[in-house]
Amino acid sequence: MKLGLISSAWLDSPVGHLDGIRKSKKIGFDTIDIFGDPMEMDAAERRAIRDACRDAGLPVISTVMCALGIADFAKVVRRFHIDRAKRFLDFGAELDSKNLLLVVGEYLWEQEVIAPEHQWAWAVEGAREIGEYAAASGREVAIELEPFHLSIVNDVPKMVRFLDDVGLAAVKANVDVSHLALVNADASEILQLRGRIAHAHFSDCDGRKHGDLPPGRGVVNFPPYLAALGEAGFEGSLSIELEYSPQPEKIVEWVEEAYRETDKLMQAAGIRG
User: Which end of the chain offers a freer environment for a tag, N or C, measured as fewer CB atoms within 10 Å?
Assistant: First the structure.
């Protein structure tokens, strides 16, 4: 596996996006995921990101998108998020990325107003159309499991069901280790996704609340999850997710620590390569 970083690590810090890409390579990362909305960028900004990644020698694995309206009750809202996802995939083509990391959102109004099966079906329908668009350019969609109570995909059985309902080889799972820990998923559950994992995220947490901490600052027992990823046949990039550091002025040290501790874990597991 390769070791990557999601560029959102540099959000709200003194380090700009392009400088963050260069620093990521200097720290030692093998790959990078790009967090940025192509609908908020002009061609020159997108080109600058592409060139920075190429000049740094950092292959782009994912473009990252939250499509929280993909299961909205309004058809026009769902249409917007599907079309927006296609723009992310077009951006990914410019970056020569491998997948679109897609967060499909949560149930509205605590499932009391709109039947949850309708929102599930809308999310499936949207993911299928996005997946078909991705496949046409040789890319994949990685659905993220979110650990929140009302998230549409919030445990491994729901992920399996979601992928089955979408029914496309190009739509696979993203395995986020801290999210699995937060929903008390045993590492062995990853094996239910054998051959269906497009991407993986890596961070720590306190076991109660979403945290995106550097490994070692929380309570996650990482080795079983790393072993299960390998057993499930995943050979891609393990991307560290760090967002909104409590000390933005020390973001470089925060990222360096996360790199160092994750590399130790991967080396001990014999999977860094």
Answer: C
CATH class in words for 2-269: alpha beta
How many other C-beta atoms are found inside a 10 Å radius of the C-beta of residue 221? 9
Give the integer Cα–Cα distance in Å for 119 and 67.
Answer: 13
For 250-264, write each residue's pLDDT tens digit: 999 999 999 999 999
Q: Concatenated DSSP letters for 22-77?
A: HHHHHHT-SEEEE---GGG--HHHHHHHHHHHHHHT--EEEEEEE-TTTT-SSHHH
Query: What residue type is 16 in one-letter code?
Result: G
Kindly give, in sequence order, each residue whose CB lies less than 8 Å from that of residue 127, ignoring residues fewer than 6 positions away.
70, 102, 104, 141, 143, 162, 166, 171
199 and 236 Cβ atoms separated by less than 8 Å: yes
Write down the pTM of the prediction. Answer: 0.95
- Distance, in Å, from the CA atom of 175 to the CA atom of 1, rounded to the nearest integer, reads 14
Interatomic CA distance for residues 31 and 50, integer angstroms: 13
